[in-house]
Design brief:
Keywords: Membrane, Transmembrane, Transmembrane helix. With about 130 residues, this protein is mainly alpha-helical. The chain has a domain at about 5-30 and about 65-130. The chain is built from four helices and no strands.
């Protein structure tokens, strides 16, 4: 498996943003930015509404236990850990010749792990490269 397949999902957003900024520099046409205070306020209100809707989707219906709420909110990270540990376990057992893992199965787990790393670190890398904006 190509090592680049692990990095590509995480590095794709900054690369696309870099291409967009190079094109904007040469053409003089940048991304649409608010020109007045009213436009800026409208953009900020739209972003706030979008985040409110996303938060509403994650809110459970009805009264639930605190531990259930905590489990629901951490489920993505628990599954990310399970995928990473499973992949390392399968790859390690295969490398040590303890068990023989079919290459298609191992490649599938490595692709899952690439997605997990993009989920965990992609936004952080992108924000770091954008200068924290």
């Amino acid at each position: 498996m190509n090592p680049l397949s692990f990095l590509l999902p995480a590095l794709l957003p900054p690369v696309v943003d870099g291409i967009r900024s190079v094109v904007a520099r040469f053409t003089g046409i940048g991304a649409a930015e608010p020109k007045t205070a009213e436009q800026l306020i409208a953009v900020m209100q739209a972003e706030t509404e979008r985040l409110r809707v996303i938060a509403e989707l994650d809110r459970p219906a009805g009264e639930i236990s605190k531990w259930v709420c905590n489990l629901r909110s951490s489920f993505r990270y628990i599954m990310a850990g399970v995928i990473i540990l499973s992949t390392f376990t399968l790859a390690g057992l295969d490398a040590a010749r303890i068990i023989v893992v079919q290459s298609l199965i191992l490649e599938g787990f490595l692709n899952l792990m690439a997605s997990v790393f993009a989920f965990l670190f992609g936004d952080r890398v992108y924000l770091h490269l954008k200068g924290g904006r």
